Amino acid sequence: MSLRIWMKLFGMTILIGGLVSLAVGVSMQLSDPEYRNIAADEWIYNMFQMLMSGFTFGAFAHMGFFAYLMVNYIARSIFRRPQLWVALQAFTVVFVLVEIVYWTYGSDFPAAFFWAMPLVMVAASLLVAWRKVKETTSGSWIPTLFFMICVTTLEGIPVFRTHDLKTFAFEMIPLFVCNAYQILVLHRILKPGNEKLDVAKAG
Asked: 70: helix, coil or strand?
């Protein structure tokens, strides 16, 4: 991956983070009666803050993405059988989902959040994994699910502690979308002959 390609990937990721955060933030404000009648300059200021926050989420997602690329590369060097690394990722996915239930059960989040949030994340991750498999190989299922569920959850740990649904959505949705973009575009930007670097291929 050349420096030019990396800069393009980074730029697109933070741009997506900014736009998604702006869309989510504006939607939340429009649904809240307290914010519907605020002055135009306050709207502009709030939208600017949302955009800047989104850029930060995009940059954070990008760091998490490359951190996992490094972990994936090291793990493939350690595990001589690729199936062992894939199995470990599958186990970790289940563990993280159980942890999400543990973190949110009985918290200040809405009552159904402890089971609805993991289900939504799994469904959305399966959709991303399906698209990845369609464009690459069947071995992409587990690695893509691992990245979308485990890495996104790791990046969003601070927001789990807020116990506020709006704050959670405002941060987690951009992180998830940024990660989905990165994992789906990776095989397209790698040079021919470097496909083995793709994080979402099992072999």
From this structure: helix
* pLDDT band at residue 54 using 50, 70 and 90 as cut-offs: very high
pLDDT tens, residue by residue, 17-42: 999 999 999 998 888 776 666 777 78
Block residue for tokens 């690695």 = 143
Contacts for 4-10 with beta carbons within 8 Å, 24 or more apart?
5/189, 8/189, 9/62, 9/182, 9/185, 9/189, 10/59, 10/62
Structure tokens given for 79: 């595990």
Cα–Cα dist 202/90, whole Å: 12
Other CB atoms within 10 A of residue 141 CB? 18
Contacts of 62 (CB under 8 A, 6+ apart): 9, 10, 13, 14, 178, 182
CA pseudo-torsion sign 188, 192, 195, 197: negative
Q: Which residue type is seen at 128?
A: V
Residue identified by tokens 């991956």 is 1
Contacts by 72-77, CB closer than 8 A, 24 or more apart: 72/143, 72/199, 73/197
> Among residues 170, 139, 143, which one has the least CA distance to residue 32?
170
- 197 is written with which tokens? 């670097």
| Dist. CA 15–CA 28, nearest whole Å | 20
